[in-house]
Amino acid sequence: MKPWVLTAIFLWFLIFSVVSAQSKIEGTVTDLETGKPVKNVNVYLLKTMLGSSTNKEGKFSINNIPPGIFYLVFSHVNYHAEKRKIKITQLKHLNFNVKLKPKIYQLPAVTVEENEDEDWEENYELFKKQLLGTGFLAQQCEIVNPYSIEFSKTENGWLKANCNTPLIILNYGLGYKLKYFMDFFETNGYTTKFSGQPYFEEMQPANESDAQIYKENRLTAYCGSLTHFLRVLIEQYNYLDEQDSSLSIDDTLASLVSKRLNSKLTDNGFTVLSCTDLPWKSVIKPIIYPVDVSKIVAKTPDKNYYTLSFSNYLQITYNREWEEEGYLELLGFYNRPPGYQTSWIKLHKLSVLLDGKGHFFDEFAIETFGYWSFEKLADMLPFEYEIEDSVLQTVNWTY
User: Fold this and answer.
1) Whole-prediction pTM
2) Based on the structure, what is the number of domains in the chain?
């Protein structure tokens, strides 16, 4: 056989192996009571733009899934939604055969009093602020189905919100339509506890100008975000790991110091410090000291994941973008000029699992304070969003 034929066969085999080995989810959805297939079931990987729907035989398939930990949701207007937590590693193929429970609809007579209507409006305004935020992007969001939300009060007076269907949110600033599956929401107007997962769909821009606005706003939302920081933190850890492996007895003190600098973080506009307490909660000024990234990040046996572990708080400042006016107003600083965006994070677990792109998978594992607590659902981007390092290291909105 001629050499070029062997080469062609090898290339064909290589391409076929790569394509056929891509991570994939497929399965069948049936009615729990009748066992019949259910068509038009929406199947989503939450926090992503990956999804599908079942055909008349109840079958679905989702391809090209990146490594990560996701919630897989099965949603249909006539059935109770199902949610499964899954872990995707390289070249994984998962199969799900899901049985959905039909909904039983009851339509009791409802009388709406005028004062009840006013209470709902007031509760809804508070709900929007605490879920979407009050910043620039939050003002460009619209909840399409607000009347699917039911409000009540807890024993301690907190506002509680429930929604049996996904909230449909149009984010005209970022160019996404969100289906938000809300699991829990409580607020007292100052502190808010909520959990839920969005599914993203691209909104088609009306023209090139809108497309450019989406692009610019997405970049601004990502830069300085918690995801951006965690991604660079992983890059910094890998960089230090490489430097440690190249140490030699001939290294001077200056070269040893340079190899331990947080250069990746600095290049991306971040300064990270460890602190004993939040500045506004401590009677005594908190102790602040530099962070050795190699001491708070560690590799896991799975090369796609890392663990983050530290005590007390991390203080993170992003010096490429000013604080929004809405943030200063929220703090009551009406006359202070905006400063750099400063945030704090605290862990509620001994260690938190991260992937190499800065995503973490336990909603309540990391608590944010400061600027990141001001940025809420309106500032969120899908799992797939990426931007080149060359862009991230050169952006600056403080000139």
Assistant:
1) 0.85
2) 3
